[in-house]
Amino acid sequence: xxxxxxxxxxxxxxxxSLAACSGAGTPVTQPPNAxxxxxxxxxxxxxxTEAAPAxxxxxxxxxxxxxxxxxxxxxxxxxxxxxxxxxxxxxxxIEPRIEQWPNFMQDLITQISAGVAPDLIRSDIxxxxxxxxxxxxxxxxxxxxxxxxxxxxxxxxxxSTNLWQGVYYGLPLDxxxxxxxxxxxxxxxxxxxxxxxxxxxxxxxxxxFKAAYPEDYYFxxxxxxxxxxxxxxxxxxxxxxxxxxxxxxxxxxxxxTVAAYEQYLQLFQAGCIAPKVLGDGQDTYSGxxxxxxxxxxxxxxxxxxxxxxxxGKKLGAALFPAGEAGSIDVVGGEDILLFKQSKHPQEAMEFxxxxxxxxxxxxxAEVGVMPVxxxxxxxxxxxxxxxxxxxxxxxxxxxxxxxxPQWGDIDTIMSDAGxxxxxxxxxxxxxxxxxxxxxxxxxxP
Amino acid sequence: MSRKRTxxxxxxxxxxxxxxxxxxxxxxxxxxxxxxxxxxxxxxxxPPELIPASPTLENFVEAWASSNFGSYFRNSLVVTAISxxxxxxxxxxxxxxxxxxxxxxxxxxxxxxIFFMMLPAMSLIVPQFILATxxxxxxxxxxxxVLYIAQNIPFATFLLRGFIEQLPREILEASxxxxxxxxxxxxxxxxxxxxxxxxxxxxIASLGAWDEYVWANIVLNTAKVRTLPVAIANFQGxxxxxxxxxxxxxxxxxAPIILFFIFLQKFVIKGIATGAVKG
Amino acid sequence: MTxxxxxxxxxxxxxxxxFLAIWLVYPMGHSLWISLHDWKINPDEISPFVGLGNYVxxxxxxxxxxxxxxxxxxALVTTxxxxxxxxxxxLMLNRIARGKVFFRVAYFLPVVTSWVVVSLIFRFLFNxxxxxxxxxxxxxxxxxxxxxxxxxxxAETAWAAIYSLGIWKGxxxxxxxxxxxxxxxxxxxxxxxxxxxxxxWQSLRYITLPLLLPTIILVMVMLTIGAFQVYIPIAxxxxxxxxxxxxVVLSYMYDLAFHDLHYGSATAVSFVLAAIVxxxxxxxxxxxxxxxxxxxxxxx
Lengths: 445, 279, 300
Known about the structure:
The complex is a heterotrimer. By secondary structure, chain A is an alpha/beta fold. Chain A contains 20 helices and eleven strands. The longest helix of chain A has 24 residues, at 2-25. By secondary structure, chain C is an all-alpha fold. Classes of the chains: A alpha/beta, B mainly alpha, C mainly alpha. Chains in contact: A-B, A-C, B-C. The interface between A and C is large, with 49 and 43 residues.
């Protein structure tokens, strides 16, 4: 016992002295350098970044994205779009890197800590406020002289996902939203003439459906995270946070939000919604392909996926059923971000401009990536696109999720509340009251 | 009952039991093999099938042919071979020191070494990456090799120390009396006696290197130096994944380790030279 | 003792220690330092010193305790399962005359396959939808269930799936190490016992098992240490859900670090976990010391 004690003491001594030595070596105790508070500087006050424009020496930029190896998007990016850019700018080479979505933040944080963040990333929009808050990003609105022109050509929803504390840190790269996707055959067999135009149609359509297909489900939801449940909340006039994003109480547990969850629960209890929302069950894509699910709300990627599983299957699309506040779905998509630790910001900005050019956006549109440029919305390529038009229509009213570093936590709280409601462990009002209190605690620690 | 009869019953009973256990154990694996022979498996058929109705080799072809799978394979081999060899060598040396001698700081050092088996590797990644960046090892195979050696030594030391401790003391002391140096005793007597343990440690250390994903993903950040686990993960998509492809690639990746195991486990059977004490 | 004799152990230790010092000890020191601060990921920002604040936060977080409880249960169940089955398999395998290689490979295959692949396979096997093999076998195959279970929608059934994965994956590991130990037992002891008229069962009970006990404990310690660090199965099968009820310490830590960006707190959690595992394994190893002296005194 004494030996153990003695050994432990020595261990602690060794560890402690090492901690002090190695700790003192890191920048932890150094004062921040001059760029410590970019968020509060007015646009234009930040000096133009120092790095000289491409002088002919080879520059390599790293660009992280989440397209997987054998996807058409990746092939288009690597085989066509990037070579187009490199042909225009022979001294700049782009090195794309595939990152798995679950690991993205971990790898990013590790590299930022070591001072070697990638130059550019195609970022999920919910990461933007976290990265901005960390001080890791270059504020594009002050760094790019042509920022305002670029911004003017963007849809407002996607553009707003780049805003944090009054500063725009990035630009949208691609956007999407979800619409009501349905199986016209199953609808026809059940006697449903048109997709539901409003929420009040849902219950009656569901009943008709159940009469024709007792074993199957009218609607398939993936889960009850924000991405899935917000259309239901927003269309019914509910809300998660106050307009200034400081409080949830009165909003998340407000009467309209409660009504939205209660409506969802009612549909679930009536057997209209598949049990997959509880966590496990048949996935939505195979369900749609296999005529187990009749409708869901999803993005344009669903077409090739369902087609891959059930060749030639016809899917219908319509706007999300309108509640009293209209038909509001969620804005998704990715933004392109530039890191302060990048050694070649000027060249990186050229790449950003290129990715937001008509030609690049149209090329990516060929593989199902919706463009963010409102000028393209009127172009023939988009207007005649087989699947995009309805999404562009929905985008007019879709809302972006609040831009906050705590959004991940809030999403989890929302999902947990939804789960408790569906499992009938709490009533909607109780669950939302508790959740609103939790969210407030996160926002005002 | 005759001895032969009893013997037969024992053999039969054990074999049957083992077979049953093996079947249960192999079942999920068979499921994986079956899936890898199914074409375009974004979904799973209902009702589920173990052996696909129309097996195809397309997943294996695509896995191997797609971008450099051969070089990922080679990188994994290099990394695993070097790190395993060094791990076993250094680990056995440390195990010998801890098992054979008593010395100042022996206990604290030993505790320090095995403490690292208990500290989650996840928590050290950021400091280790900062170090790797400072040493300019990022993007090089050596950046991964040195870390695997360091990470696997504690376990190897722990396992080998346990085995060496149980070796008959007389053998070790006899050779020292004969004037053999410690290194000779270690290399010519102790290590051969530890073959089963060494083989076991080698297999497990090589697993640690072959299957490691997180560190490999962040350090080996270009296709030139990428290893298999990262390559396989990259087949997974954001919305859907072709599981047949992922499993086929995983099977290709698991084959060398199985072969290595089959090769090594011969050493595990070979008994020690029990005659050594008498000689 | 000669000088050479006194420094020899250090010479043997040195190369390994160099690797450990650079790649493990120094980063651990750095990590410890981080755990004492409200650490900002951006190296340009100041991280305020909070002393033991992160540790206090950990101990007062109910989610941590739930994760710890889940992890401990997982460690207990899977370690016992792997040990018992591993010992049985090793003993039987050591005894049979034919098919040794086949069985060894068969039982070792789960160990050799990566955790990621294995977790994915089990997730598909336990799917609640009609494609899930386990439900199919239970309902239509051996017909012990009326209707399929939604395995992953409830914590208890989800744990069943995860426990089976944990046990399944490690039996081969225990088996291999125990087999290696069994090879080293001196033949003379068994020969002598046989001459004295001992039955096989008696040989097993009085020679094999006591000799095997130290290795069993060794394996138990390794399995326990590994089980406390379970992460991938949880991340890939349930992701801590539903409602965080299958959260384990490492998944809790991962979210804290890379989701909530409380990196200092997450590092503190890792040290707390390491300390807990250290204490448990030391307790287990004490058993080994007792068993070893017993077997040496009572053995051949």
